[in-house]
Amino acid sequence: MLDWHDADQIPGAGDPALRAEIAHRTAAALVHGARESEDPDVVDRLIHLVEVEGLDVVAALWADCGADTLPGALWRLYVLREWVRRDAETITHRYRLGIAAAPVAEAIAGAATTPGPQDLRRLTDAVLTGVYAGDLAVALERAAAFCRILATGAAFDADALENVAPRHAGHVTFAASSLSRTADEFEDAARLWRSNRLD
């Protein structure tokens, strides 16, 4: 059994309150700093933050934050962008499956009529551009619509896989449910931003 002195010497995750304060301050500094900057390269650098710093660095800053906070919303946006960047073929397939059943969401998301992988990469970049140089609430609503379309497409994909690969179909169904929840979270964050309560 360790005594208190020895236990205090073991490195841990740090003070949760301090971590939360750092998360909120960095998120606010990035969003407000980019909006106040006159350097056009600032937004481009922020869009590519994960490629430069790594997803693990961004995760260490914001992954533990709730979806109803600015750092939590930013974390989910970067994860969504990274997923599209890494698995664009699957995302494109599911997006195309979903747009027929979700035309309103398609209009809000703003992708091309028959999007390809590059179109969806551009869409997620445009959403992040909106965070730093446009209407953040609209950017979050576009991300929500994008997730709703993907959730619908994933549900259709799961149905198609049910007889061929039932175990994989279960994973895809779970992914569809997660995407739907993420869409709700983005919409809630947009409402909070509009009422000046997303911090």
Low-pLDDT segments, ≥5 res? 1-8
Domains, number? 1
Helix percent band: over 70%
Distance between the termini: 42 Å
- Strand segment count: 0
**Quaternary form:** single chain
Structural class: mainly alpha
Sketch the major β-sheet. Answer: none
State the order of secondary-structure elements, H for helix, E for strand. Answer: HHHHHHHHHHH
Tally the helices: what do you get?
11
The whole-number mean of residue pLDDT values reads 89
Strand content: under 5%
Principal-axes shape call: globular
Integer-rounded radius of gyration: 19 Å
Explain this structure:
This protein has one domain. The chain is mainly α. It contains eleven helices and no strands.
Q: Features of this protein?
A:
11 helices, 199 residues, disordered N terminus
SSE layout and pairing:
Layout: H1 4-8, H2 16-36, H3 40-47, H4 49-53, H5 55-62, H6 70-86, H7 88-99, H8 103-109, H9 117-133, H10 136-161, H11 166-194
Helix pairs in contact: 3-9, 5-6, 6-9, 7-9, 7-10, 8-10, 9-10, 10-11
Summarize the structure.
The protein is mainly α and 199 residues long. It has one domain (15-194). It is built from eleven helices and no strands.
